[in-house]
Specification:
single chain, globular, transmembrane helix, transmembrane
Length: about 140
Amino acid sequence: MKNLKEYAKCFILFFIGGAIYICIELLARGYSDFSMFLAGGICFVLIGLLNEIFPYSLSLTSQMLLSAFIITFIELIFGMIVNVWLKKGIWDYSNLPYNYKGQICLLFSTYWFFLSLPAILLDDWLRCHLLGEKKVKYKYF
């Protein structure tokens, strides 16, 4: 029964993360794609799992850095599948410096670092207030 409860939590967080990311894209670019719902949901769940993998040992800054790496990695995987393999052309960073195959770049990895802070805080708030988990105590550095 505990596993079913954990899967339900992950599904709820996945759905919320995916929906929020679609909204961010609609506000920022005016369009999105269902694959971004999937990528956003996966990223949100993985960011939330950092507290379970490293309970109380990671500072908030370290969580943000790891989150930026997670998001960049997921973006690379989805970019290679959706943009390169399926040729949907949802994004292209080819014109930006320090890009890899136009799918990830240093500028957007930096954006992900800063965007991860509200994601971390929202995940922790949802886990505490919606899912009844213990409140997280933050270390800042």
